[in-house]
Amino acid sequence: MKHASRFTLHASRPWILLNPGPVNTSSKVKEALLRGDLCHRESEFSELLLKIRKNLLKAFGIEKDYTAIFLTGSGTAALEAALVSTLDSRKKVLVLSNGVYGERMEKILSLHRLRKVIFRVPIGEPLPLERMDAILKSDPQIETVAMVHHETSTGMLNPVKEITDLKGMAGRRLILDSISALGGETLPLAQGKIQVCVGTANKCLQGLPGVSFVLIAKKELERIQDIPGRSLYFDLKTHWEEQEKGGVPFTPSVPIFDALDAALEELLKEGLERRMERYRQYAKRFRQGFKKLKLEYLIDPRYHSNTLTALKLPRGLSYEFLHDRLKERGFVIYAGQGPLAGKIFRVANMGALRIRDIERFLRCLKEILASYDR
Ligand SMILES: *Cc1c(COP(=O)(O)O)cnc(C)c1O
Fold first, then answer.
1. Pairwise CA distance, residues 53 & 101, whole Å
2. How does DSSP classify residue 297?
3. Ligand 1 in contact with 179 (CB < 6 A)?
């Protein structure tokens, strides 16, 4: 299979990153960091921001109904901004939670003392549609549902489309953490049922870490005008108003915007469908290899995302040992989080990878599994 864009590994950091972001980036994305110093109050930055906003919407085919608001900060920055800027404190938000990132949403809402109903199932379990529908129908105070698209802690893809189609969702809004899915997974954005969708530059968009964004339905922008400000830095209204004028309220990470510009050009060139297909093929190749090595999945593979596989650590093999032996061979894997620490390892397939890297990884993994002390 043809690789999407050329990339070279640097001699001092020669790693293939199989962690779920930051990912390996193309040479063009890295070169964009050297465009030169720029003041964010100059017209060149306004043009850059305008272009990035336009290209992001274009890549997802949602120019008509959505706008994009950018923040300097990792994915959690945009997630916190989305939650604190869009919720009416007189109403409730229902949080669907089946992993570490669902819990992160709960935590943000608790810190800001926003009214919430938590629907939590054990980590790695699928969200039961009928029970959620019943909760929605029984509580008219629930105005919004907040959920994670791809629960990166387990590699589980949650059923966004099925949830938006629930009878109980009629008249309600959806806030989606699609940080590890946008660009890698199909998303029914164009159907107008997702009002707020959060993403980041350094996962499936293949940019660098430090810039995140909220895609917000234009209709929703009127509604948030009435939400009282709850944060100075994380107020979407403030960022949106400035960005509409071509500016930003605070100093942005200019070079990371440059890198995102290059990454979005590459996404447009590759096309969203082909990007997703490339990730599907990567995941398929990894999983064929895992199967041959008789490794056990953490979750039911019917719920696997396109971009990450969580595997149980074989008995007697510590995460640290596996991580270190793989790193010596040029690969960075990812540990389990929260209750899964020490029990699993994760292999993501986001970013500028090559099939031959995946094949070499599988050979190395085989060698390490054959050699460790059982
Ligand atoms: C990566 C990720 C985040 C954000 O993490 P940051 O470290 O703040 O970028 C949030 N939600 C999900 C599902 C993620 O995968």
1. 26
2. B
3. yes
CB 88 within 8 A of CB 113: no
Nearest to 80 by CA among 179, 201, 221, 190: 179
Whether omega before 20 lies within 30 degrees of 0, making that bond cis, reads: no
The CB of 307 under 6 Å from ligand 1? The reply is: no
Predicted local confidence at residue 374, as pLDDT:
59
Choosing from 79, 95, 101, 234 the residue with most ligand 1 atoms within 8 A of its CB, the one to mutate for a pocket test is 101
Q: How far is the CA of 359 from the centre of ligand 1 (A)?
A: 27
CA of 152 to the centre of ligand 1 (A): 8
Q: What is the mean pLDDT of residues 362-370?
A: 97
Ligand 1 centroid to 202 CA: how many Å?
A: 10
In the structure, what pLDDT confidence band is assigned to residue 192 with cuts at 50, 70 and 90? confident
Could you report the per-residue pLDDT of 271-323, keeping only the tens digit for each?
Answer: 999 999 999 999 999 999 999 999 999 999 999 999 999 999 999 999 999 99
Query: Tokens 């926003």 identify what position?
Result: 114
